[in-house]
Specification:
Radius of gyration: 16 Å
Structural class: mainly beta
Order of helices and strands: EEEEEE
Number of domains: 1
Organism: Cellulomonas triticagri
Distance between the termini: 38 Å
InterPro entries: SH3_Rv0428c (IPR056934)
Largest sheet: 3 strands, antiparallel
Protein name: Histone acetyltransferase Rv0428c-like SH3 domain-containing protein
Shape: elongated
Length: about 70
Amino acid sequence: MVVRRRLPEGSPQPYTDVLGDLLAVDADGVTVRTRRAGDVRVPGAEIALGKVVPPAPVRRPRRPAGG
């Protein structure tokens, strides 16, 4: 899932995306488990939108050079 999060006024960009697995939803916001930052809590007031996205494809191992 991806959650578009509003950034504080004066930030270089108005939004950032939090991409990962949805762990929890409650009246105060959501928790998303990301690959890079671990579990990220996004307060409801900062959520601009949310969208289900397909999982990332499984990465295949690289073949050795010349083989």
